[in-house]
Amino acid sequence: MFAAIGIVVLIVLVFGGYVLAGGALGPIVAALPLELMMIGGAALGATLIGNSMHEIKLLGGGVGKVFKGPKYSDQDHLDAIALTSKLMKLLRAEGAVALESHVTDPDNSAIFSEYPRLQKDEMVRNLICDPLTLIVVSSGTLDTHAVEDVIDNAIKTQLHEMDEPAHAIQALADAFPALGIVAAVLGVIKTMGSINEPPEVLGKMIGSALVGTFLGVLLAYGFAGPMGSRLKQVNAHDQQIFHSIKQVIVASLHGYPQPLVLEAARSGLPPAHRPQLTELLDMMRGK
Question: Is the pTM of this model over 0.90?
């Protein structure tokens, strides 16, 4: 929502200020389609050259995140902690055999079904079920540090994929000013080919060429750069759910009491989205 509002504010104030300063929009409007075609086409071509179809799909999803915001709500973070805690409590109380059906078939798990949004989320399910399945098949004999290493590696891989779109958008932000210069240079070449035209004609042609430089800088610092920064913020918020799950599993395997397990997961959440410990304890007690 704020991204859309920001775009409107940017366009209105930049072009509004230009008009109030006595500038005419006519030359910009006339040159804009072709300049945008050259700059946008170069950016699109460079994106296709530098990425596979998988990364391009991720990029499209990343742009959507800029406008939609985080995938996981504050309640999802609470539910992830509660879900993982219940599974680990079952493991400690009844052993690996009792846990097996829940982690090998989460679609039919009574515990997972209490949290339908997370039950349908492949990333969350895999991060919970994969290490717990290892514990089940090893009859609970795995070293806790080995399990933690496995989870860390899974999180690292997931975070790398989540961050790829932000890197691609930032690369576009870095490239747009240069691509604007390319469009401007082409405009100058066109102007030099008409050097015998009267000054009023040359002036319009030079003005059109400069629109390319203006557009490249505006796209870089007004659109792509802020979008890349916003996507990093959204990813940072969503990534906390993985760290919370890890903390619950690792702290439980170390044999910590449940309040300390919950605190280990809760304390890693950003202050603005961190629930009270009593809220988590009441949730686990079913209040």
Answer: no
How far is residue 133's CA from residue 197's CA, in Å, rounded to a whole number?
77
Into how many domains does the chain fold? 1
Residue 26 lies inside a defined structural domain of this protein? no
**Structural domain boundaries enclosing 200:** 31-287
CB 160 within 8 A of CB 123: no
- The answer to whether residue 15 sits within a structural domain is no
Q: Is the residue at 13 inside a domain? A: no
**Residue 47 placed within a domain:** yes
Q: Render pLDDT for 172-185 as a digit per residue (tens, 0 to 9).
A: 999 999 999 999 99
Q: What mean pLDDT comes out for the span 178-199?
A: 86
